[in-house]
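Key result, reporting period 2: structure in, sequence out.
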């Protein structure tokens, strides 16, 4: 599987770089992320829950940042195990470019390999789920870096339209929603962190 996307973030390049290296912002931005903690130099251990079609699992994994050229680019090498659901591993090359004084263009190319039940459900379903998770990540990430409750159009993928914008009834309802549904806004859930 390979994903290539670009997003425009409504913050200067240095602020975007700092946020991409802030574990609290990342935890609040990664859909289904339970924990993300430093695990050595430029490495992080994380656990998250995810669903891809009929396969739902809790994944534990590790991310390593390599080829770091602050505040312009780095490569993320990742691997994770989801028990009976299978595994995922791969890398993502992330590039930040100033887009005027107050915004930054973030581009990435990610390649990943999955095995186990995840590989059995088909690449179209896995690709669709990966794009949905990436889109939700950038929506949440944009809201985090701007300090706004709602990201609006600013962090939207150039190739993905924004969702319906429905609001959950309460923060407790949002926290209990399945991250794979993508129908509810996660504003209330993010504000709990």
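The corresponding designed sequence is given below.
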């Amino acid at each position: 599987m390979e994903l290539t996307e670009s997003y425009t973030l409504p913050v200067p390049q240095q602020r975007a770089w700092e946020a991409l290296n802030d574990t609290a912002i990342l935890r609040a931005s990664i859909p289904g992320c339970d924990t993300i903690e430093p695990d050595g130099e430029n490495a992080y251990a994380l656990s998250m829950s995810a669903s891809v079609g009929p396969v739902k699992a809790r994944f534990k994994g590790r991310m390593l940042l390599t080829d770091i050229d602050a505040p312009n680019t780095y490569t993320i090498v990742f691997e994770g195990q989801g028990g009976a659901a299978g595994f995922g591993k791969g890398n993502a090359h992330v590039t930040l470019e100033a887009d005027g004084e107050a915004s930054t263009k973030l581009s990435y190319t990610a390649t990943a390999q999955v095995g186990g039940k995840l590989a059995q459900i088909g690449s179209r379903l896995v690709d669709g789920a990966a794009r949905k998770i990436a889109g939700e990540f950038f929506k949440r990430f944009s809201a985090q870096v701007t300090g706004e409750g709602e990201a609006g159009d600013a962090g939207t993928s150039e190739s993905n339209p924004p969702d319906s914008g429905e609001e959950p009834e309460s923060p407790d309802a949002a926290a209990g929603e399945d991250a794979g549904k993508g129908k509810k806004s996660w504003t209330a859930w993010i504000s709990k962190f």
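Confidence is low (pLDDT under 50) at residues 150-193. The chain has one domain: 2-164. This case is discussed further under Risks and Mitigation.
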